[in-house]
Predict the structure.
Amino acid sequence: MRAFHYFAMYALAIVGLSSSATASFAASRPLAIYVEEDPSSLNTILNTAYGWQLGPLTQGYLFTVDDRGRLVPDAARELPSRLNGGISTDGRTIVYRIRTGRWSDGAPFDARDVAFTIDALRNPATNVPDRSTIDAIAAVSVPQRDRLVVTLRTPSAPFVSSFLTLGANDPFAILPRHIAARYPNLNASSLDTRPVGLGPYRLVTWRRGDRLTFEPNPYYWRGRPKLERIVALVEPNATTRLVQARTGNLDVTYVSGLQLDEAAREHLRVVRATTNIVDYLQFNVHGSRALGDSRVRRAIAQALDRARLASTVYRGQEEPTDTGQLAPDLARAARLPAFDPRAARAALFGAPVDLEFAIAGQWRSSASAALQIAAQLATVGVTAHLHSYSTSAFWGAKSAGGVLENGRFDLALTSWSPSLDPDRSYLFGCAATPPTGGNAGGYCNRAFDAAEERGMRTYDPAARTAAYRTAHAILARDLPIVPIGFERSAYVVSSRVVNFRPNVLGRDYWNAWEWNVNDR
């Protein structure tokens, strides 16, 4: 699950300030970004949407992901492959060349920190949202401080892009062993509010409910980043954020819905990117009596005018899709039922269907989309009772009472930021129920699992493509979800900002070390 938001409110309104003083003040103003809600924690191994969003500012990963969807070396020096000896011939041994250095507090960093992170993620006492990647590991060794050797239980083609990378389904960062080892578990630790990391910046202050301020990490391996200060301000109101952008007090803010129209009218600079973040209607296949019947799920899919949703609610910032795979060669076999409300009514035999419909009300265009979905369902005899939650409650961990992970819904309007790899077993596999995976709806189909298994066990691209086409054809038939579309991210970005480049995963702070401002 994912989430990325930025904002700011630095007002320049000092009466009598000379033009030269004004210019000097503007040049010194920090880059201002926003988050919609205070992070519950800045420790990325916990399920915290805004902590994941801000993670690349302060944290280090084995690999990040650039704006073209490619893995970029970070704490690892190169991508392991069979060609460079990083992946063994049997596909079970992965060797990482680690870039040793220092943490943001000056303590030494080496491969032992990466090995420790694996142990911390395995700790059953810590509420880790997804252990599927770590569970694939049979053994770990550190033969040298700049070498990490991982032995897998079985070959796993998705492993490299999913293990401690920004391209993972859950983008866990590397943990500082010298701090994290003090705690019996990491459900609560100093890392929640005082993160120590390998990223380009470090947290200076956090005024809860107001702002987080970051300064350069003097030990960052690429050298000192370009900005002297970044301020992330907490502002849940999209209209307020757009006003601040229009008045020049906000540098980067996500916009959607009607705010896009307003940005166009104001001739504001908008930076866009098509992402693989898929918005979808989640069915509680296991916990809802009505939705356990695939005919009811099919009727609901037929009742949804997804093209209308994309144009009216998402204002063209949603690319309708029949699958959870952005790559065209993997999506060919998947086709959802066409919009046909008459067929939907007939399939339900006139029997009323009553459902509880959960959303994260402040998340993007969720509230307006849910209202339109509920209205469309009502025309075919399905009543959807809307329940709106905060993002932290909606996507929270199972142990923390999270709505999705505890199955407290019949329908849920949600979104998922998939990993770079086409594997989706963590989202729909029989064994992937929370907290060991993201299968909140309890869907289970052994044929789907078998196809995903074939795709996972081979490193051959053609064989993987065939396997995942089969898997997604099964999903299109069984309908554990109804994909609505891929998000097209849109940010209002001030003209002074240089090098803000969103990526395909929606993890748009991946290159924070390159960000700069030009106030001339």
In short: The chain has two domains: 19-248+494-517, 277-486. Residues 461-478 form the longest helix (18 residues). The radius of gyration is 23 Å. Confidence is low (pLDDT under 50) at residues 1-27.
